[in-house]
Specification:
Helix content: 10-25%
Largest sheet: 8 strands, mixed
Bound molecules: 2-acetamido-2-deoxy-beta-D-glucopyranose
Structural class: alpha+beta
Shape: elongated
Domain C-type lectin: 25-132, 132-243
Pfam family, one: Lectin_C
Strand content: 25-35%
Organism: Cyprinus carpio carpio
Protein name: Si:dkeyp-94g1.1
Signal peptide: 1-20
C-alpha cells in the first residue's frame, strides 16, 4: 500500500473517547439494580467499574451525564471477610507488618504507629497522622479521625503512607513525636470488588461505610459529592458504570476520511483495512471484532470529497 496514505479515523463518541486507556469506563444511563448492572457489564464489557485511584474517581465523575446528580453503581459490595489493606489501594499479601505484641487485638479497624510499632484502634479516634508524597513523609500535627486524615492527605499530598518494609517503617519513625499514636494508611476492610481482585482503594463519603449492618451492601458513587462513595440497598435502581473493552460491537458503522500526499490509488481496500486494524490495536482496541468496508448502493466504497476539503487535505481527499 502507498506509504504516504494517512488514515484518519472519525469515530463516534462513546466508543472512542475512553478507549485508549488501560481500563476504559462506559456510563450506562439505564436504571438497574446492582446485580442486574453487574450482569449487564459482564456480558458486554468486563465488569462493573473498578476504581484504582483519585485519577479514576475524576474520570468517573466526568463521564456521568451532566445534570444527573444521583448515585451511580460501581463494582464494590460488602464481602464476607475482613482483610487488611492500605489506603493507597495496595493489598497486604506478601507484605510486612510491625504489630506491637498482642496487636491487632480487637474489632478496631484503623492502624496507628506508636514508636514504630503498630496498634489497631477505632477509626473515630482523633490522632496526628503522616502523609506521603514523592519527596517523602510529612507529619501533620493536627488531630483528625482516620477518614478525615485520609481526605487531608489525598487533597494536600498523595495519601496516608503504605509501609512495605522495616526501612520505611524506620524512616517514618524518625519524624514521629514520642508519646503519640499516629495514623498510618493500614485499615481493615470488609468490602469486595465485583471482580474479586483485592485492591483497597476506597473513596467513602463522610460517615460511610456505616458500621451498622442493614444500611446497604452495594456501593454507589455520588456525582453530587465529588465522586464519593455511599452504601445503598442492592435492589435500588441506579445508572451504572462498566469498565473494559466492548465485547459485542454489532454493526458499528463509522465513517472515515483518508487523505494522502501525492498520487493516491485506492484499489487496495484490504491493505487499507489492515492499516486500520493495526492502528486500532495500537490504541488498545483490538478484540474479536471484524472490520469491513460498507458499500454504497452503487457498489463503491470511496468517493471523492468536494474540492474545498480536498485542497485542505493536500492533493486528494476521499470519503
Ligand atoms: C470523622 O469525622 C467526620 C467529621 O469531621 C465524620 O463525618 C466521620 O463520620 C468521622 N469518621 C469516623 C470513622 O469516625
Ligand atoms: C488541605 O490543607 C489545607 C491547609 O492546611 C486545609 O485547610 C484543608 O482542609 C486540607 N484538605 C482536607 C481535605 O483536609
Ligand atoms: C495483591 O496485589 C498484587 C499487586 O498489585 C497482585 O498481583 C495480587 O494478585 C493481589 N492479590 C490479590 C489476592 O488480589
Ligand atoms: C497515478 O498513478 C497511476 C497508477 O499508479 C497512474 O496510472 C496515473 O497516471 C498516476 N496519475 C498521476 C496524476 O500521476
Ligand atoms: C474542482 O477543481 C477543479 C480545478 O481546481 C475544477 O476544474 C473542477 O471543476 C472542480 N470541481 C468541482 C466539483 O468543484
Amino acid at each position: 500500500m502507498d506509504g504516504s496514505l494517512f488514515v484518519l479515523l472519525l469515530l463516534s463518541g462513546l466508543f472512542w473517547s475512553s478507549s485508549a486507556l488501560s481500563h476504559p469506563y462506559h456510563y450506562i444511563n439505564v436504571r438497574m439494580s446492582w446485580p442486574e448492572a453487574q450482569s449487564y457489564c459482564r456480558e458486554r464489557f468486563t465488569d462493573l467499574a473498578t476504581v484504582y485511584s483519585m485519577d479514576d474517581v475524576n474520570r468517573l465523575v466526568n463521564i456521568v451525564d451532566a445534570g444527573y446528580s444521583g448515585s451511580v453503581w460501581i463494582g464494590l459490595k460488602r464481602g464476607t471477610l475482613k482483610r487488611w489493606g492500605w489506603s493507597n489501594g495496595e493489598n497486604t499479601t506478601s507484605q510486612y507488618y510491625n504489630w506491637a505484641s498482642g496487636q491487632p487485638n480487637g474489632d478496631e479497624d484503623c492502624v496507628s504507629t506508636y514508636a514504630g510499632v503498630w496498634h489497631d484502634m477505632l477509626c473515630s479516634n482523633k490522632r496526628y497522622f503522616v502523609c506521603y508524597e514523592n519527596s517523602g513523609y510529612i507529619l501533620i500535627q493536627s488531630t483528625k479521625n482516620w477518614t478525615d486524615a485520609q481526605s487531608y492527605c489525598r487533597q494536600n499530598y498523595t495519601d496516608l503512607p503504605t509501609i512495605h518494609n522495616s526501612e520505611q517503617n524506620n524512616q517514618i519513625n524518625k519524624i514521629l513525636l514520642s508519646e503519640n499514636y499516629i495514623w498510618i494508611g493500614l485499615f481493615l476492610d470488609s468490602w469486595e470488588r465485583s471482580d474479586k481482585w483485592s485492591l483497597f482503594f476506597r473513596h467513602w463519603a463522610a460517615g460511610q461505610p456505616s458500621m451498622s449492618s442493614g444500611s446497604g451492601d452495594c456501593v454507589g458513587m455520588s456525582t453530587a459529592d465529588s465522586g464519593k462513595w455511599f452504601q445503598h440497598r442492592c435492589d435500588l435502581q441506579h445508572p451504572f458504570i462498566c469498565h473494559g473493552d466492548l465485547k459485542l460491537i454489532r454493526n458499528q458503522i463509522v465513517r472515515l476520511k483518508l487523505s494522502c500526499n501525492g498520487n493516491c490509488t485506492l484499489n487496495d481496500q484490504t491493505g487499507i483495512l489492515n492499516e486500520i486494524s493495526k492502528k486500532l490495536k495500537s490504541m488498545g482496541l483490538e478484540g474479536e471484532s471484524k472490520i469491513s468496508w460498507r458499500k454504497s448502493e452503487g457498489g463503491e466504497v470511496f468517493h471523492q470529497e468536494s474540492n474545498r476539503t480536498a485542497n485542505l487535505n493536500n492533493k486528494c481527499g476521499r470519503r
